[in-house]
Amino acid sequence: MLQSRHKKFIKTKKGTILSKEKGNKAEKKAIDFLKNADYEIIETNFYAKKLGEIDIIALKDGIYHFIEVKSANDYETAINNITHSKLSKLKKSINYYVQIKNLQKAYCLDVIIVYEDEIDFIENISL
Predict the structure, then answer these.
(1) 45-76 burial string, b = 16+ CB within 10 Å, else e?
(2) What total number of domains does the chain contain?
(3) Is 70 helix (H, G, I), strand (E, B) or coil?
(4) Domain assignment of residue 7, yes or no
(5) Residue 37 maps to a domain
(6) What is the predicted pLDDT for the residue at 29?
(7) Is residue 17, in this structure, part of any structural domain at all?
(8) Running DSSP on this structure, what letter comes out for residue 52?
């Protein structure tokens, strides 16, 4: 039986190609970073129907953290990929999660930027 060796690629607005594998590696680095900072990983890659995806849902000190992971070759490119449209979709996805899980705890939206060998953690960004 033959297996496909094709990788899925995502074409960004600037025309560079990022493989799904690169995104998965960035999420793995983010999860390791969070675990080392005593976050409990509740869920990863939560799909909120047609609303969008939440990369990581974590818990620390009684607060739920909905975390978007962005990776790029440099910080500026990664941070610029967090658009108003993306934040709007995340907000809808978070609201959906809170509703279906009947979440009665405090929560916030965070971003982890993975570039080169660096990780930047931006907590509690505005919705």
Answers:
(1) ebebeebbebbbbbeeeeebbbbbbbbbeeee
(2) 1
(3) strand
(4) no
(5) yes
(6) 95
(7) no
(8) -
What range defines the domain where residue 91 resides? 27-122
* 3-state SS assignment for residue 103: coil
Q: Hey, is 101 helix, strand or coil?
A: coil
Q: 87: domain CATH number?
A: 3.40.1350.10
In sequence order, which residues have a C-beta less than 8 Å from that of residue 50 and are 6 or more positions away? none
What confidence score (pLDDT) does residue 19 get? 62
Structure tokens at 73: 């070759």
Is residue 1 in a domain? no
- pLDDT at residue 8 is higher than 70: no
User: How confident is the model over 41-93, as pLDDT tens digits?
Assistant: 999 999 988 888 999 999 999 999 999 999 988 899 988 989 999 999 999 99
Q: What is the identity of the amino acid at 81?
A: N
Q: Which helix (H) or strand (E) element contains residue 45?
A: strand 40-47
The pLDDT > 90 percentage for the chain reads 61
